């Protein structure tokens, strides 16, 4: 283990956390896909192999991303934004519709679906980091700084929110945190937040998923009991209630890996509600450990922010770190009943394709910033060593 970690640059604790989460993901997904495999007439081993392949590709992308100097991502962010906005528009018009939501496009030849909002998150955060670091001297200038920065945030928010409001709200929240760190006027942020809030209300009111949004919000605040003979299609709290059952029956130490009962009842135990299955199998102790891993990841990202000598690196680590942690906390909150049901996966743990891959790239960029800090520190130590030797010789 030490030999492997010695070849990896950047924060070693982030590498360790990623490896632990990836291993845990394999166990949890393998335990959760039984019903899906039965419905599609396939073996669970096939899903395990596919998930393992995606994780392996993700780790490779993470390694390659961390080897590239993070300063190159400033230029890459412009290209990503130029691709992202047309791609989001294309997804809304021609994307694959599932539950009245156009979130995916099919990649030709390989015939695999691709969720464009995952690319949009990475593109917007890296673009904001670039803009904020380069506009610090004129950050209070509305025309030169505020308009182009907030324009990009609002455009991406609207394009994502139309089909995926929860992801858009979290991305906007991360953007606001970055803007506050970047010294954008609080008054200006408040005005834009008010405008975005009105846009969100508009999306909920007239958007293609308005019925789903209203039913989920109503179900979250409803205390009405549902009779046992009511079909699950008519129970708006069906997923949330069964997730609570999984958590309640898990106890302190859980039923053990592979012994979940609610995995056969929950519609998406391998993605949206995988945290509930983990608590059922590994208990409250397992849930707390998983929560601690994400908080530890955020702590290591904040440490990188404080040590980064350049603003761009600090903004990158902060934005990407906040994005991953907020997404993880949102998924966990839904599973334990602290929020309405959303389709947000648990980073690096839920079964998925583009989510794992882009999360891995984001972590690789954070590690690239950390690697640069280590190299600068090592260089400073080498520069100071000859001076120390001269002092010793002079004393003798």
TrEMBL record:
Protein family (similarity comment): Belongs to the SEDS family. FtsW subfamily.
Topology in membrane: Multi-pass membrane protein
TM helices/strands, residue ranges: 12-34, 46-64, 76-94, 168-184, 189-207, 273-299, 311-336, 348-369
Locations listed in the record: Membrane
Pfam families, per the entry: FTSW_RODA_SPOVE
Protein name: Probable peptidoglycan glycosyltransferase FtsW
Organism in which the protein naturally occurs: Sphingobacterium alkalisoli
Cellular component, GO annotation: cell division site; plasma membrane
Keyword line: Cell cycle, Cell division, Cell shape, Glycosyltransferase, Membrane, Peptidoglycan synthesis, Transferase, Transmembrane, Transmembrane helix
InterPro entries documented for this protein: FtsW/RodA (IPR001182)
